[in-house]
Amino acid sequence: MKHNSELVFSDSQSISASLSISVTKQLYHGESEFQEIDVFDSTSFGKFLVLDGEVIFSESDEFIYNEMVVHVPMAVHPNVKKVLIIGGGDGGVAREFTHYPEIEQIDVVEPDEQMIEVCRQFFPTMAMGFEDPRVHVYNQDGLRFVRSRENEYDIIINDATDPFGHAEGLFTKEFYGSCYRTLKEDGIMVYQHGSPFFDEEESTFRSMHRKVVKTFPISRVYNAHVPTCVSGYWTFGFASKKYHPIDDFNPERWDERNIKTWYYTSSLHKASFMLPRYVVDILREEEGRN
Do domains 7-58 and 62-288 have the same CATH topology? Predict the structure, then answer.
């Protein structure tokens, strides 16, 4: 039973549905030149980050997202030396890449310096990703960054939050084309594909797939259960110039690394590409428009 004095944060996920989290304390509030930033503490999810009123991640489930965007492409690509993370201001994606000794350079392009500092202060287990000497942070616009590069990275992770506001340019056809040129001839791009469950999100989901399919010869979608994401059902895009996420997947090689994970396994890798029928139908419809 809730007491009247209890603070509840409500994240609107559709016109008529929201995720409500009982908050024990508000730890931070500030506005950068890009966005409004809040940090709350809760019993159910631990500390969680809110940008412009939307939950971005929580301590309790960040490992799911970060493991799935990193270990899936790393278990497929046989020779990764240079990685680009667009967004990634919390350090969580960089942290997962630091488990791989063969990677020589990890570039993080996050325009919002304040976001990085907030995460260093309140989410040190994620921001520790910035401490590795292979990690280089660029406070620049992601689209502008990839426009100026060609044939440079083995893997690109688009870790931008949403296709609105200052990150809007990171979900355009031009952006995907620039990423294609920035990748080496066998490069892989992974990006968050959103959730098609609510009608309001479905059009963005469709548009994203349509643009990527037109740009990359191999384009697949995989999924995971992330409780604080919209509807708890979240998808990721795997776009590649050469490698197929299942046909070129090497579970034995990945298992031999003995990387400690909480969500990703080599068995789950294959299963994550098995999608619900309604999602498969949406993707096929968009592929048929090309």
Answer: no
Domain boundaries, the chain: 7-58, 62-288
Contact 280, 274 (CB under 8 A): no
Residues 103, 72: Cα–Cα separation, whole Å: 15
214-269 pLDDT per residue, tens = 999 999 999 999 999 999 999 999 999 999 999 999 999 999 999 999 999 999 99
pLDDT 10s digits, 170-194: 457 888 999 999 999 999 999 999 9
Q: Which residues contact 228 (CB under 8 A, 6 or more apart)?
A: 11, 19, 45, 48, 55, 57, 58, 61
Using CA atoms, how far residue 233 sits from 42, 50, 201, in Å, is 21, 19, 12
Partnered with residue 10 across adjacent β-strands are 20
DSSP string, 177-213: HHHHHHEEEEEEEEEEEE--SSHHHHHHHHHHHHHHH
CATH number, domain 62-288:
3.40.50.150
Q: What is the pTM of this model?
A: 0.93
How far is the first Cα of the chain from the last one, in angstroms, to the nearest whole number?
53
Predicted confidence band at 169 (pLDDT cuts at 50, 70, 90)? Answer: very low
SS3 at position 44: coil
Work out whether strand 82-87 and strand 105-109 pair parallel, antiparallel, or are unpaired. Answer: parallel
Q: For the domain made up of 7-58, give the CATH fold.
A: Spermidine Synthase; Chain: A, domain 2 (2.30.140)
The enclosing H or E element of 62 equals: helix 62-74
Encode pLDDT of 87-123 as tens digits. 999 999 999 999 999 999 999 999 999 999 999 999 9
Active site residues: 159
